[in-house]
């Protein structure tokens, strides 16, 4: 069985790798600085949302195991506020590409699928 923390840690490592490439693109390619900065903002906010959701899922699973009835949510409002904040930052400053910010927000969430498939293949072998 694959643990949630192994998938989250693998996605985090991959997101930091992508952030490093975005920072190198920002430093070495001045004509692509708006795109690189948009990716940096989007990947950072997406990674925060991804890790926050994993904490909430872990809390819900712990409460499901317990016998007491306690109300908990998945933090949708917090995650949407972080996303809106990243988009507002991209809109406010002209030196940030809004499309790269949106792509960076989705990229971390999309990376979870191939990472979990690779992790499941590794666990079977």
UniProtKB/TrEMBL annotation:
It holds the Pfam family ATP-synt_I. Its main location: membrane. It comes from the Bacteria. It comes from Paenibacillus urinalis. It is found in: Cell membrane. One of its GO terms (cellular component) is plasma membrane. The chain crosses the membrane at residues 7-29, 35-53, 74-91, 97-118. Keywords: Cell membrane, Membrane, Transmembrane, Transmembrane helix. This is ATP synthase subunit I. The lineage of its organism: Bacteria, Bacillati, Bacillota, Bacilli, Bacillales. It is a multi-pass membrane protein.
